[in-house]
Amino acid sequence: MIIYSILKKVLFMKKTVLFVLSCWLLCACSAPNEAPINQLTDQEKKDGWVLLFDGKSMDGWRACNETAMPDNWVIEDGVLRVITNAEKKAKLPPPAEGERLRIPAIDILYGAKKFKNFEFSIDWNIGKGGNSGVFYSVVEVPGRPIYFAGVEVQILDNWNAGDNKLTNHLAGSLYDILPALPQNAKPSGEWNTLVIRMKDGHVTHTQNGVKVCEYTVWTPEWYELISKSKFATWETFQEPNPAKEGYIGLQDHNDFGCSFRNIKIREL
Prior knowledge:
Structural class: alpha+beta
CATH class: Mainly Beta
Order of helices and strands: HHEEEEHEEEEEEEHEE
Helix content: 10-25%
Number of strands: 13
Number of helices: 4
CATH topology: Jelly Rolls
Number of domains: 1
């Protein structure tokens, strides 16, 4: 009787182990493999896509209004990251007595080529409380940051950022002009995909596979929208602006950092 009870327990344990192992193997086999980053598929190459960032170098990129890349942008594990305000402080010498520590925010752009009609795609992952932006039709204004130089598509931690009170300031929006609807951004720490398509002035923003914003620049309707925004008196947005062609740029908002990958474009 004792031997029978022991054998029964052993058999039960074996069945349990086999069941758990089977479940683990099933989950492992069914879990989707994450696609390699910063690479184009054969179909994308046929469709004319080109990488603007290969995960290894910043070839083609530079600071806005400068000729070289600033050191507040780093490459880590194939990802381009603008460092946080705290990281910048740690790298700077203390200010002289009575002076205030000045922490530079240095935006960057892909300066190897200007684009007119294009489809641009980028993955972004914002730091908690962070703020950034993707800019197109950038024409540099000497001495001015990138938001004086082009049109901004907002990147934001919608939940924790200070600038989250207006719908047209949330992620995917045409900043301070048109909101991204539906609002489908993922929270800080998760990857989002933004696609900006511009063809003969008609522009769409697609966020995480959903079209969230659409407009046409250089039209009476466009300039009416501008007149109701913070950009009403900015030369960048006065007729006939924005520029017919310009650079693609990324913003250093000088706060909680942001990461980027899979940066690619095709001309239309």
